[in-house]
UniProtKB/TrEMBL annotation:
Cellular localization per UniProt: Cell membrane
Pfam families the record matches: Amnionless
Organism from which the protein derives: Charadrius vociferus
Protein name: Protein amnionless
PANTHER family according to UniProt: AMNIONLESS, PROTEIN AMNIONLESS
Length: 394
């Protein structure tokens, strides 16, 4: 399970020595007055000793002191780097939301930044998914708002303060301690399961119920609007907040399909080719909503979604991604049965006017659904009229 697990690390902290946590953009020095808002609940990690003139503490909070850390009263001696005597306030950490993708980064199992390079994630998958491992860096304090549309947010494990909690019992014990209420707040509840994805064909992320929170946080960070695109009819991948130019492939699979092996195959055999140097790929299992006759909702269908984008500009936007999509579909046609792929469907949106439509397959499906829906409605109305004339309906 460790080889296929995804580790996501929380970025912000509430450490005393982090300059951005103070309204003056610097760590308080000896002649300063330190003020924590009395109503703000907070946990603050202190790494080193500090001399201070005065400090106002919150009514509900904690200092977590590293070895040798602490506070002392300023003795009045002159410090060349500290002659302001200002009031320095601790910043508000209440707005750090769990479902903000910009506050997470993928890391390796040992905590180093993951350098995937050519592989990216859909926006919903940038936030910890139900089978992911969450890491809060050792020797840091934090506060996270876990407001959610779900009562329980499931995770594989949580590492904090240098210890990994990977069982429901261990996590329940931590929640009963004094620090958890200061670190986590909001209406959601985190639940550690200790289990990874049980399906070799992959598992859906599970963050769809909170997609509106994820997209709102992303759009706020980017100026409240999606990037301008050059293609005429951009694509909307499942689990992504903004539309893209390039190509998407939806694969139907059999029980023999192995998502990790297939991703490695695409990276090694196709994506690593020099001609595709500017292409980035996302691949994951998603659940796509289905309808009967284009009208009646049915249960979502699991499929493998591949999203391809490239670094081309103007009329060339997405053209290299389109070529890679064609190569993938050719590979599916030749080896799909052996790979556990039963069917594949591609949609393309590039910068050119000819292929700027959202793919003929998608257009034909929409048209067919509309026609079938109209026929179904006419048949229903005709049946009602027939029964009414026969006197069987009033």
């Amino acid at each position: 399970a460790a080889t296929t697990a995804v580790y996501k690390q929380w970025i912000p902290d509430t450490n005393f020595e982090t300059a951005s946590n103070w309204d003056k953009g610097r760590v308080p020095c000896a002649s300063d007055v330190v003020r924590f808002e009395k109503s703000k609940v907070i946990s603050v990690f202190v790494r080193s000793p500090h001399a201070l003139t005065d400090m106002y503490l919150p009514l509900n909070g904690e200092f977590v002191l590293a070895s040798g850390a602490g506070f002392a009263a300023f003795d009045g001696s002159w410090d060349p780097g500290c002659d302001s005597g200002a009031t320095v306030r601790f910043a508000d950490a209440e707005h750090h939301a769990w479902f903000n993708p910009t506050l997470w980064q993928a890391v390796s199992p040992h905590g180093e930044l993951e350098t995937r390079g050519r592989i990216f994630s859909m926006d919903e998958e940038r936030v910890p998914c139900r089978y992911d491992d969450v890491i809060f860096q050792p020797e840091t304090s934090f506060r996270v708002n876990v407001d959610s549309s779900r009562r329980v947010i499931h995770l594989r494990s949580i590492s904090l303060m240098g210890q990994e909690l990977s069982s429901p019992e261990a996590w329940a014990g931590y929640l009963r301690g004094p620090s958890a209420p200061l670190q986590f707040h909001g209406n959601g509840t985190l639940q550690v399961t200790g289990t990874g994805c049980p399906d070799k064909s992959g598992c859906a992320c599970g963050n769809a119920p909170d997609s509106h929170r994820i997209c709102a946080a992303l759009l706020e960070a980017s100026g409240k609007q999606c990037p301008a695109l050059t293609c005429r009819s951009p694509l909307q991948p499942l689990g992504h907040c903004c539309k893209v130019c390039g190509a998407t492939i939806n694969l139907d699979f059999t029980p023999d399909f192995d998502l990790r092996k297939y991703r490695d195959r695409l990276v090694q055999d196709l994506l690593s080719q020099p001609k595709y140097a500017g292409v980035r790929m996302a691949i994951s299992k998603v659940h796509k909503a289905q309808t009967f006759l284009g009208v009646i909702p049915q249960s979502p269908t699991p499929l493998i979604q591949i999203v391809l984008i490239d670094d081309k500009a103007g009329a060339q936007t997405g053209t290299t991604a389109e070529q890679l999509a064609a190569d993938i579909m050719e590979d599916v046609a030749q080896h799909g049965e052996a790979l556990g792929i039963s069917n594949g469907e591609v949609e393309v949106a590039t910068g050119s006017t000819f292929s700027g439509q959202a793919g003929s397959h998608a257009l034909s499906r929409i048209t067919a659904g509309t026609v079938l829906g109209l026929l179904f409605s006419l048949l229903l109305l005709g049946g009602i009229l027939f029964l009414y004339r026969k006197g069987k309906l009033r």
